[in-house]
């Protein structure tokens, strides 16, 4: 695929991850980032990279072995469950300090859930290109990664602002304000994910 063709698919991937229709993917990125503070960006990068690797592997599988992908209806049901599970994990661990062990476990979680989200991306590509999706795959994936960067920057900026507000409410108690922020954001996203899961239930 030439460079001009490659460039034509980048906006498609970028638009897919940032469009209102991709709210479930956006909420997953938000809840993934919700447990990190601004100075913990390196740990967040490790976890988000694991998510990227996961969904990239599924996109590659869609090219090499498209018949191995699960039914799109099942995938759409599983995506909100990954959101709910991540939000619950946030709340359970909101009082713990980040460390290498925990980052490693969370990276594995994000990588596994990335496989599910990648199946959703692959299904979208397959709808647009009924034949082989090998050609648009690279550009689409680059666009998704660029879109993720924009979403995550917005998420971290919003979370930093929320931290300031919760510190004021908690009268300067940073740890308490952080736990309140994690719990509030995660609870809202869990509720949204639960609604989506019920709406998309395959039974």
Notes on the structure:
- The structure is a single chain.
- The chain has seven helices and no strands.
- Helix 3 runs antiparallel to helix 6 and helix 6 (134-169) crosses helix 7 (174-200).
- The mean pLDDT is 83.
- It has 203 residues and is an all-alpha fold.
Observed structural traits:
203 residues
Indicate the percent of residues in helices: over 70%
Structural class, please?
mainly alpha
Number of strands: 0
How many separate structural domains? Answer: 1
The portion of residues forming beta strands comes to under 5%
Q: On the 0-100 scale, what is the average pLDDT? A: 83
How many H/I helices? 7
How far apart are the termini?
41 Å
Task: Summarize the entry for a quick read.
With 203 residues, the chain is mainly alpha-helical. It has helices at 3-18, 23-33, 41-64, 72-92, 100-128, 134-169, 174-200.
Topology record:
Layout: H1 3-18, H2 23-33, H3 41-64, H4 72-92, H5 100-128, H6 134-169, H7 174-200
């Amino acid at each position: 695929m030439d460079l001009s063709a490659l460039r034509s698919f980048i906006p498609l991937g970028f638009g897919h991850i940032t469009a209102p229709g991709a709210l479930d993917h956006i909420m997953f990125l938000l809840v993934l980032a919700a447990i990190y503070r601004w100075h913990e960006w390196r740990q967040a990068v490790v976890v988000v990279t694991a998510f990227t690797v996961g969904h990239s592997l599924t996109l590659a599988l869609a090219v090499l072995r498209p018949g191995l992908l699960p039914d799109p209806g099942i995938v759409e049901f599983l995506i909100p469950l990954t959101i709910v599970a991540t939000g619950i994990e946030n709340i359970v661990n909101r009082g713990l300090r980040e460390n290498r062990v925990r980052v490693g476990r969370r990276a594995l979680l994000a990588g596994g859930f990335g496989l599910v989200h990648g199946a959703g991306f692959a299904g979208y590509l397959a709808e647009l290109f009924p034949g082989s999706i090998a050609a648009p795959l690279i550009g689409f994936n680059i666009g998704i990664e660029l879109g993720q960067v924009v979403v995550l920057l917005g998420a971290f900026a919003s979370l930093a602002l929320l931290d300031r507000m919760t510190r004021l409410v908690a009268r300067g108690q940073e740890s308490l304000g952080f736990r309140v922020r994690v719990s509030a954001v995660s609870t809202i996203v869990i509720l949204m994910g639960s609604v989506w899961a019920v709406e998309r239930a395959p039974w």
